[in-house]
Each structure stands twice: as structure tokens, then as C-alpha cells.
Write a structure and sequence with these properties.
409 residues, two-stranded parallel ribbon, mainly alpha, Ferritin, binds fe (ii) ion, single chain, globular
């Protein structure tokens, strides 16, 4: 029997745009749309991870953590749906005009301009496209995509609403992203592309930071050591514990660097998915600190980013191994006594956060084992060898031999 290639027939909505009066969307058009949506949402994951490091307000960093995970879930759902569809090759390349628009969004002058371009232009256009797609879909024939869109739309609505409260700025960068979207025929690619001549690149080029930048509320300083916390008064120990929670910014930053640096074509999507999850978890652990410090009448004011900074210059494999099989294993023995200690003092609020953190950390070590083993397939070295290389790197960075992977707090 002759093998049939995916049909080249033009579907009803390919004629012009996602017309809300149309009667359903064919498979070929749908797969093209889902691939474009994946391109935009994956691009957003990476640019938010990059800006996580340099956006000055810690609340913005925490919000980016939630949004990265929303985008990762959307990408995961759409990839799974594409895998079920005739002609749904997920890795088919996307039109360069759309890729350019996504790639250029990160290159903003500052966080305000970035939020305005990434949320109020790129995500707002994506949201509008999702709404049009849902309205054009047939509720029965397109039920699977309709269900996906109904789950994704509220997330993007929340993102855009958040951004509207952060910035009202209309700026050159945002205007340029608008022109690039129009030149790509909209997010859907189904509109007539607006020819507007050469659109020059943004004069600001984003550089992924090797440290964590903050506004003036957060200063760089040492945290109380674990030993000192154990002999401090219960009130002091609890405050210092939650300062250490806030400082999990360093772990989130390390993962942001992985999400930003990892080449999508070299590593399986599941790698990106797991570490986007872990990134979000570490962001939440930092947020636990901010929430609890405020509840205790204090506020976050210190970050010690040294563990993140010293990890820079290491390959991705080593960064993952350092965090998940080095530091997280090192910290693990503290988790159970800390959770139990809060419970014994009747401090159930602190116990709630410590309990959640303990559970998440077990998952993180599992991610580490899985991906370090995967990355070491057909490599002469073992995970132990990689940890030894990390200790050597850390020794050089600290100017002092490191017998084990440890933390100063
Ligand atoms: Fe953590
Ligand atoms: Fe962790």
C-alpha cells in the first residue's frame, strides 16, 4: 500500500487567520499552530530564567519561577498532543520570523522594558491567539486542543495581569517586538505578514549574569553557620533558618543558569522539564523564607550567592551533579530534625514549610541521579569522578583544597 504523507490540503482557517466564525481546524493547521506555541513558550522559559538573575526585586524573581513552570507545563502538554497527531513531528523547525521575534525579546534595556515586551506584547499576543484558536475550534472535532487551550489561557491571563501591575511602559523594545510579531504573520502565522522593511536588532544585548543581582533591600553578607544556629536561642535559630530558606536563591540561580545555557537540541525535553520543576521548587523555598521572615516581623535582607557564583565556569553536567548529588545530599541529614524540631515546639507554620522542602529535596536528588547517569552514558567517568572534578574546581575558586562538598551556612 502506498504510504501517505501528511495531507497538504489547506484547512478552512488557513485562508486568512484564526477566524472566530470558522467551523473547526484541520490537523495540518493544528500541528503547525502547536509547534509555534511551543516555540514561544519554550522561549519564554529561557528568557525568564535569564532575567531571574538580573531583575532587581526578589518578588519579581519569585514570580518568574512560577511562570517558568507554567510555560514548562504548557510545552509538555502540547508536545504530548503533537506526539499523538498525524504529522505532529514536534521537532520540526519553526519559521525563522517567529524564532527571531522570540529570540529578540530578551534583549531589553532593563527589567521593566523586558516585562513590557515579554508579557504585554509577546504573551499578550499569544493569549489572544489562544483565545482565537479556542473560538475557531470545533468543540467535538478539536476537543483535545480546546481542552489544552482552556487550561493554558487562565495561566497567561494571570501572567499578563501581573505584568500590567508591574509596568505600563511603552518603549522602543516593546514596539520592536510588536513589529516582529506582525512581520511573522502574528503568533499563528496565519495573518498576512506586515512588511516593514528591515527591523534592526535591539541595541541592548542580554548577557547571562554569573551572580544574582538585587535591589538595595538585599545586601550580600554571610549567613549564620549551621553549628551556630544549633546553639542559638529558639527565636534566633528560627529566624536564621528562614534566612537560609530565602538564600535558596543560590540554588534557583544555578538552575536558571542550566535552563538558560542548556542547548535544546542536545538534551531531551524531559531534562528541561525536570530542571524547570526543580527551579520552581527552589524559588518556592526562597519564597518560604520571605513569607516566614515577614510573618515573624522581619524581612529578607541578606543573600550569600557564593555557591552559585563558584559553580559558574563548570559544564552543565558538573553544575547538576554539584547541586543535586553534592549540596543537596550534604544538606539532607538536616531535613528530618528541622521538621521534627518545629513540630515539637508547636510551630506548625514553620513545620509546614520545612516538611515540604524535605520532600522536594528528595525529588531533586532523584532528578540528579537520573540525569547525571544519563549524561555519563558511554563516558569513562562515574558520578564520583564528576564530584571529584567539582571539588577541584571549588578548591581553585575558594583558594583552599575542598575535601568534601559543603556549604558555609
Ligand atoms: Fe531547596
Ligand atoms: Fe533542592
Amino acid at each position: 500500500m502506498k504510504k501517505t504523507k501528511p495531507s497538504g490540503k489547506i484547512g478552512p482557517i488557513q485562508r486568512s487567520s484564526l477566524d472566530r466564525g470558522s467551523h473547526g481546524i484541520d490537523i495540518r493547521t493544528t500541528t503547525g499552530l502547536l509547534r509555534r506555541y511551543v516555540c514561544v513558550e519554550r522561549g519564554l522559559m529561557r528568557m525568564l530564567a535569564g532575567w531571574f538573575l538580573v531583575a532587581p526585586a526578589y518578588e519579581t524573581k519569585h514570580t518568574f519561577g512560577y511562570h517558568v513552570w507554567d510555560h514548562a507545563e504548557h510545552v509538555d502538554w502540547m508536545r504530548k498532543r503533537l506526539g499523538e497527531m498525524r504529522g505532529g513531528q514536534v521537532n520540526a523547525s519553526v519559521e525563522p520570523a517567529l524564532s527571531r521575534c522570540v529570540d529578540e525579546t530578551i534583549h531589553a534595556k532593563d527589567a521593566s522594558d523586558f516585562i513590557s515586551a515579554a508579557y504585554l506584547e509577546l504573551q499578550a499576543s499569544l493569549l489572544e491567539c489562544y483565545r482565537d484558536h479556542l473560538a475557531a475550534a470545533d468543540p467535538c472535532a478539536n476537543a483535545m486542543e480546546s481542552r489544552l487551550l482552556q487550561r493554558m489561557i487562565p495561566d497567561l491571563e494571570r501572567h499578563v495581569e501581573w505584568a500590567q501591575k508591574q509596568t505600563a511602559s511603552s518603549n522602543d523594545h516593546r514596539a520592536m517586538i510588536r513589529r516582529l510579531i506582525a512581520a511573522a504573520g502574528g503568533i499563528s502565522g496565519l495573518e498576512t505578514p506586515v512588511k516593514s522593511g528591515d527591523i534592526p536588532a535591539s541595541p541592548h544585548r542580554f548577557q547571562r549574569s554569573g551572580t544574582i543581582l538585587f535591589d538595595s533591600r538585599i545586601r550580600r553578607a554571610e549567613l549564620m553557620s549551621y553549628e551556630a544556629r544549633k546553639s542559638a536561642s529558639p527565636e534566633t535559630a528560627r529566624l536564621e533558618d528562614f534566612k537560609v530558606f530565602f538564600n535558596e536563591m543560590y540554588a534557583a540561580a544555578l538552575l536558571a543558569s542550566v535552563i538558560y545555557d542548556a542547548d535544546p537540541s542536545e538534551l531531551a525535553w524531559e531534562f528541561h522539564h525536570d530542571f524547570a520543576h526543580q527551579f520552581w521548587d527552589e524559588v518556592r523555598h526562597s519564597e518560604f523564607g520571605a513569607i516566614r521572615l515577614k510573618e515573624l516581623g522581619s524581612a529578607p535582607e541578606v543573600c550569600n550567592p557564593v555557591l552559585f557564583e563558584r559553580s559558574q565556569g563548570l559544564p552543565i553536567l558538573h553544575r547538576i551533579c554539584y547541586l543535586t548529588l553534592g549540596l543537596e545530599v550534604y544538606f539532607m541529614s538536616r531535613k528530618e530534625p528541622r521538621t521534627r524540631g518545629f513540630a515539637e515546639k508547636g510551630d506548625f507554620r514553620s513545620q509546614l514549610f520545612a516538611d515540604q522542602d524535605w520532600s522536594d529535596e528528595i525529588t531533586h536528588v532523584r532528578y540528579g541521579k537520573r540525569w547525571v547517569d544519563h549524561l555519563l552514558e558511554n563516558d569513562f567517568r562515574t558520578a564520583e569522578d564528576i564530584l571529584a572534578e567539582v571539588r577541584e574546581h571549588m578548591g581553585a575558586a575558594a583558594g583552599q583544597k575542598q575535601d568534601k562538598i559543603a556549604a558555609p551556612f
